[in-house]
Amino acid sequence: MIDGARAGAGLQRLAIGLLAYGAAGLIVAAIGLIVLAGAVGKVDSAGSGISTEVDRLGSILDRTATALDDAAGTARGFSGTVERTGPTVRRAAAAIRDIGPRLRDLETQANAVSILGSRPLGSLAGLFGQIAGELDGLDTQLDAIADDLTANQAVLTTNAGSLGDLAGEVRSLRGRFSAAAIGDGIDGAQSLLVAVLALFIAWAAVPAVGALALGIWLRRILAGSGSIIT
């Protein structure tokens, strides 16, 4: 036999414990609901801000790709100009190499003209010699310039290709880096957050409601019977 008063006191304490557990569980569930509402609002606000920044960054990427394409086009066009200039400079160097000896020949021939011991073409011969002297070494310099132009033309062609490739990569990145894709990711994260918090709220609320119902039922039974004997 178990003393009825002691059993009743034990059940009374059990009922109070169930009611306290249920109240605490509902408080936790209510806090979870508040947190859920606040988190959803913050995620929405953050998502809106991120979408705006993504649009702005996408515009920057578009302008960057356009600038790279323009630079590639400029380098490619200048490469063509350099390509045409190099042979012209080489032809000029060849012409100077051919002109120099002829000027020296003209100088010699003009100095050779003598009339009664006078050289009437002496000044002209000196002019030919002066011009030939000024042209000395110019052909070598022009050849060096042509070599540099050829090397620069190859570099410009390479740079134009690299800039074009980089512009393509930037546009590819722009295609992946879109506000719609970011928005889908944020929506997915928000759905996951809601699911986790909802599961937590249910985990806290369902046992709390059950504990409250059981505690209330037990209190009523105890109030109606006064004591229980088993």
Description:
The structure is a single chain. With 230 residues, this protein is mainly α. The protein contains four helices and no strands. The chain has helices spanning 4-112, 122-135, 138-176, 179-225. α1 runs antiparallel to α2, α1 runs antiparallel to α3 (138-176) and α1 (4-112) runs antiparallel to α4. It is rod-shaped and about 160 Å long. The model has no long low-confidence stretch (mean pLDDT 74).
Give structural attributes.
mainly alpha; 230 residues
Percent of residues in helices: over 70%
Major sheet: size, sense and barrel closure? none
Mean pLDDT: 74
What is the helix/strand order?
Answer: HHHH
Cα(first) to Cα(last) distance is 7 Å
Q: Assign an overall shape.
A: rod-shaped
Question: Count the helices. How many?
Answer: 4
Q: What ranges have pLDDT less than 50 throughout 5 or more consecutive residues?
A: none
Residues in β-strands, percent? under 5%
Count of strand segments: 0
Class inferred from helices and paired strands: mainly alpha
Radius of gyration: 48 Å
In short:
This protein is mainly alpha-helical and 230 residues long. It contains 4 helices and no strands.
